[in-house]
User: Fold Corrinoid adenosyltransferase MMAB from Chloropicon primus.
Amino acid sequence: MTSSSGSYKIYTKTGDEGTSSLYTGERREKSDAVFEALGDTDELNSQLGIAREYCATLPGSSELCEQLEAIQSRLLDVGSAVATPPERATEKKSMRVVFPTGPTEDLEKWIDAYDAEIPPLKNFILPSGGLAASFLHLARTTCRRAERKIVPLIRKENIQKEVGQYMNRLSDYLFTAARIAAKKAGKEEVIYRKQ
Assistant:
């Protein structure tokens, strides 16, 4: 990954034949279920970056922005855990990617705090509420997709169940955060209306 001058190079050419390596060093097809889950998690992280930038323009949103930044870092930890199937990893590598329960507990605290600030839902709402809220809704749907890709890996590859728990709670957090962002933007929630 370094050039002759010692600087970092982004390309390695090792994936030119359609394979990539896990953190364990094992090479797999780029279409493998692990890389599908990693790709969706990376996509989610990018969407959260956009949402965070829009949230930063809202009044009183510094705490929300800090939470989103922390979540982006935790998603890199999710990726590390997914890219390190325990049965194929050395003990040292397995220990480096242990996913703790603390981040999931943080999400629960944040959800509870935001729930106290917004009215309870009596109907479905449509994803909207300004740019920040809309991107948080988009991130929520991507989070659900990533979770659907991770769940089979928990069963098949023995990925830590805490990763799945985090992703499940994260989509709940993102829904609540979208509602908070809409409130901070002064936008009314759009209620689903049956035809």
